[in-house]
Amino acid sequence: MRQYLILLLLFTLVQSAVTDSPRRPNSNPPKGFVTTKGSKFVLDGKPFYFVGTNSYWVPLLTTKEDVESTFKQMKNAGVKVLRTWGFNAINGSELAAARNSDLTYYQVWNSTEWVLNDGPQGLQRLDNVIAMAGKYNIKIILTFTNNWVGYGGSELYVNWIGGAGSTHDVFYTHPKIIASYQRYVKTIVNRYKTSPNIFAWELMNEARCLGDLPGGPSCIPGSGTLYHWYNQQANFVRSLDPYHLITTGGEGHFYWKKPVGFWYNGQFISDYNFNGQAGEDFDRDLTLENIDFGTYHIYPQYWYPQLDTPGSNFTLKAWGIDWIKLHAKAAKRVGKPVILEEFGVTGLENKTDIYPAWVDSALSTGHGIMPWQFGALGLTENGGNRVIKYADALINGASPNDGHAFYENQTTVWNVFTNAAKVQDAKSK
Ligand SMILES: *[C@@H]1O[C@H](CO)[C@@H](O)[C@H](O)[C@H]1NC(C)=O
Ligand SMILES: *[C@@H]1O[C@H](CO)[C@@H](O)[C@H](O)[C@H]1NC(C)=O
Ligand SMILES: *[C@@H]1O[C@H](CO)[C@@H](O)[C@H](O)[C@H]1NC(C)=O
Ligand SMILES: *[C@@H]1O[C@H](CO)[C@@H](O)[C@H](O)[C@H]1NC(C)=O
Ligand SMILES: *[C@@H]1O[C@H](CO)[C@@H](O)[C@H](O)[C@H]1NC(C)=O
């Protein structure tokens, strides 16, 4: 009986080594690389609990001084992980203006293939960000593309390769789009794969079946479109880089068989966050071999406009706490770490009221906590004033504010995060 079991075990090991390759050599990463052990992150043999933050605009800064000042401010706030965009793409028609305004860009699209800019207004700016992160002991989550049009995401691939009339979801299935995306991923991964300053690679910001373009009929609940794409891309990244962690960058949408919804105007509204329509299946996606940890976001102000009205019994605070608990449970079932990767509410009063409760709840889960988004003060380029792109601007030395930025002069909110960082630090021993 025993021998039989051992044989069976050996057979299973051999078989899984064959069928599941490439598999991460989890046990022994180079010094300074973050890895995972069960549901924890580990850094150089110690558990790694952290408060991090988001700021996509750091690589858009034009001077090394401002980049350094931003990292210094983050370090002083106790930030250990920064998530930023590893993409900045433009159309050829925007090139002249981009050069004039000193806009950072890495890819230029003017045909069915993009052209790389690895010059001083291109990837050299990202090089500087990654290097500066190391100097301030902050690790970077680098995202390869965007679900949304901002800074040239997946929809440039769809526009240029898929052609007019393509739906958003062809991004996940069109072989030429996948090849083009992978060509970019390979460029970025190969550039930084030996760097301990990278915390993780992220496949896409907020992948959904629809984007700013509508979704098509094949990306529907149960189709597993995103699951298969995540699997294919995570395996691809793993084949390039055996050590760095890989994650989805998703919002944490569930695909539950049990219907979840609410009554509105006498109608039952099926809840987009739970019914799989967004494209993700948080529980299943997290089981993928090369998805090393999960991510989720919290934006109830935008997700529940029908319920979030004065006098209703819906509260942003309660909804967020519930969403945190659901992801903690899901993470526990799979036994991998999860991070609260983005969250935000508009208005200083709302932030002051809500963030302490959300952060407390997240601290009790042990997850990494990454508010959207960090605010830096005292930036000096162009005298502290510069329009970057869209509504993004530096104003009197303050970094861009999309309504969610919080700055050091907003002491109560600031201290919620600096105090949480101390709690996480104390547990990282
Ligand atoms: C880029 O060009 C495509 C057309 O090829 C257009 O649909 C899209 O809006 C343009 N994007 C930007 C950011 O200008
Ligand atoms: C983009 O392509 C058009 C048409 O081929 C061409 O006229 C234009 O000069 C190109 N722009 C850039 C920046 O390459
Ligand atoms: C809020 O009110 C609605 C009816 O308007 C009810 O169906 C729902 O259960 C209430 N939710 C809570 C959390 O009390
Ligand atoms: C605070 O939150 C409420 C509820 O979402 C919203 O109606 C209000 O506009 C927010 N305040 C600000 C200043 O954004
Ligand atoms: C803090 O700095 C920001 C950015 O400059 C500014 O908008 C805000 O008025 C300042 N003060 C407070 C209390 O928020």
From TrEMBL:
Residues 32-253, 279-348 form the Glycoside hydrolase family domain. The keyword Secreted applies. Its EC number is 3.2.1.78. InterPro entries: GH, Glyco_hydro_5, MAN-like. Residues 1-16 form the signal peptide. One of its GO terms (biological process) is mannan catabolic process. The keyword Signal applies. It is found in: Secreted. GO terms for cellular component: extracellular region. It comes from the Eukaryota. One of its GO terms (molecular function) is mannan endo-1,4-beta-mannosidase activity. It catalyses: Random hydrolysis of (1->4)-beta-D-mannosidic linkages in mannans, galactomannans and glucomannans. Keywords: Glycosidase, Hydrolase, Secreted, Signal. Transmembrane segments: none annotated. Belongs to the glycosyl hydrolase 5 (cellulase A) family. PANTHER family: MANNAN ENDO-1,4-BETA-MANNOSIDASE 1, PTHR31451. This is mannan endo-1,4-beta-mannosidase. It comes from Collybia nuda.
